[in-house]
Amino acid sequence: MSSNLQMKILAKETAIYGVSSIVGKFLNWLLVPLYTYVLQQQSDYGIVTNLYAWTALLLVILTYGMETGFFRFANKEGENSQTVYSTSLIALFTTSLLFALACVIWRIPIANELGYPTHSEFIALLGIVVAMDAFASIPFAYLRYKKRPLQFAILKLLFVFLNIALNLFFLVLCPKIQDWTIISSWYNPDYGVGYVFVANIMATAIQTLCLLPSMIEGFRNEPKAIDQEPRTIFSWQLLRQMLRYSLPLLVLGVCGIMNQTLDRILFPFFYDGADAQAQLGIYGACFKVAMVMMMFTQAFRYAYEPFVFAKHKDKKSVEAYADAMKYYIIFSYMILLGMIFYLDLLKFIIAPSYWEGLKVVPVVLWTYIFQGVYFNLSFWYKLTDKTQWGAYFSIIGVVITFALQAIFVPRIGYMASASSSTVCYLVIMLLSYFVGRKHLEIPYDIRRIGIYTLIVVTLLAGYYALAHFLPINEWTKMGIGTILLIIYCAIFYRLDGKALIKKK
Prior knowledge:
- The chain is mainly alpha-helical.
- It has helices at about 5-30, 30-40, 40-65, 65-75, 80-105, 105-115, 120-145, 150-175, 180-185, 195-210, 210-215, 235-270, 275-290, 290-310, 315-340, 345, 360-375, 380-385, 390-410, 415-435, 445-470, 475-500.
């Protein structure tokens, strides 16, 4: 299969997965204005920001690299993909169940340690949510492996719509009808932010139930011939092999998610002021404004990961990897410019009381770009089974993130939190590139990527210079930004866009 055709298949699957990733996350994104406008205090959103950062970290721990391990072994010669699937399901179910029980049993001491002594039920609720999400990661990976992006998208969107509907019900509708007997019998208007977690567990439970047919499929025995022996449902030997492959990825994943979430996990511990939760709420809300970049990166990842493992035996596939990297960066830069140029419009997503934190948005956007590039580069050690390198890079990233936050958060607050992640991903991105060249040679078009980077930096410098030195209003700034964005798109069309459109 030619590189051009591979790019078209990748683009098609990225678009379909984008329905669940981009549209889904966009709809979830709309919960940000709901929370910032409806929740009584900035500290309430600080609680949401802090606890969901913890859940993101715990989710990575509970999946322990098995999602990537599933793709690796399902595509490996000599392995039965269905056995790989059922073994993964049983392993994840067991560990997830044990974790959920632990969170319920020890919710009080955990809540005391995290600073929520009066709301230990938050720990139990989110523990169950994390457990269900961890278990569901394998059925969702199975749908991607089976090339069922539409089913994947529908189930992801189902959760989003349910979560939004339940949030609207608890936070908007119930306060208006709380006097109704059927509502007043159970609704507590003072519970406030707690209903965010109640809505989450209800939506997650329904989504998990909808995955049951895909789970059952993993245990179904469909022999190709009458005399064929039934396949193995669970293999200890296979599980050990998968764990040997995946456990380094666990270190990588834990360190990677720590690089993404330590800013919100550690902020209350490092910040000197009494309003730590309020400041965290401001930072968390503005952080969400930059999520458009993350949406694009996630959609690309969903399609790119199975694509890479399925095509790694093709000697010409390295050309496709290089093209994918180039176009990922090009379109990421386009989103970056659009977000920065129209930030004066996007700021209305959050309540005005949070606007003081908007200065972190450009920093977070660069973080997402470096993170996406690092993800693309990471496949050299996954394809060569040298996953320990990913662990090394991630550990370095954690050290950088932790050190920068410990030093600068007490001095400059959440700007240090945002900047530490940017520096972290820039460093490990460069390390992965230079080390990876020695193990798997991929002809990345560094010259062309460098040209686009220089163009973006020049456009941003011009934009900020004009905005700073000229007495212009917000609408004029957006007009200037529009012109600069058109210039970038025109350059892209001239250099690569025209050729991309003509590819057959």
